[in-house]
Design a protein that fits this description.
Radius of gyration: 22 Å
Oligomer: single chain
Strand content: 15-25%
Shape: globular
Structural class: alpha/beta
Number of strands: 17
CATH superfamily of the largest domain: NagB/RpiA/CoA transferase-like
Amino acid sequence: MARLDEHLERLEREVTARGATVHWARDADEANTIVTDLVRATGETEVVKVKSMATQEIGLNEALAAAGVTAHETDLAELIVQLGGDLPSHILVPAIHRNRAEIRDIFLREMPGVDPELTAEPRRLAMAARAHLRERFLRAKVAISGANFGVAETGTLLVAESEGNGRMCLTLPRTLVTVMGIEKVVPTWRDLEVFLQLLPRSSTGERMNPYTSAWTGVTPGDGPQEFHLVLLDNGRTAAPPTSWAAAPCTASSARRASTCARSTSAPAATRTARCIPARSARCCRRSSRGWRTTRRCRTRRASAGPASTRARCGSTSRRCWSGCGPSTWTRSGPGASRTRRRSRWRRGAG
């Protein structure tokens, strides 16, 4: 994060060198104007969207609607929320407040051409949503996405999702517009490797994400032939320096569950503990009763000083179903080994 400006400039160079266009947006209004103008330039009046916290942050759907452009959400939960005229209730499962009967009623009311005999069986609901979305994928000429990561080394953008709708949006339309917060950039693929292992564990408890789509610029005859990357600030650079330690996990699915890891790209003398999503094998144990969750994360800068200088991450859980209690990971000085201290609680203890 201390070299964020260098990584962003390198990302811009690499993306531009591969046939794409990079736009810089200071705030939400500027980002909305850029995206709206890009859609208008294509002459289209509808777009398909991948679930994106950045576009929700800036209110892009409302801005597009004001400009006469219809944005179709393609994530199933986001589609349910959109068709129901509702608001997301959870960062990972936005429609968790809706039951099957309510979803069936929404589909019957809002989906054109849906079978009037549609039942509340999950498989039937999924098939109805698939048929509805497939028609929009095939006719859409413009897609809008967010980005989970941007690799400065090669100018590659990545989207991680679990339904396959993201890959349809990223490959079928002729024009692709991606809105990415500037904190999502990572220097190299080696840095990305760490986050791709931690992301599914911290969001859904999986070892691997079902769909991870990566694209680099424009490839003639394959995928979108026009690609625009909008780098969004919107107050991020105005945040106090002390808050940047937690920036990599601010938009993850597990904001409240985090642990600290060192940057592998910085010199040993300047490494800073970074906060990244946690539910990894190091800090979690899974049992038949479920996952233990972390409640608190504390970070302190580590330097090349004496062994007493520590970068610590302490996490405590209210209850641990697998029988293990709070654990603390400690690293003493650069390159020192990591140790784990664990105490056992009785099941059901507070």
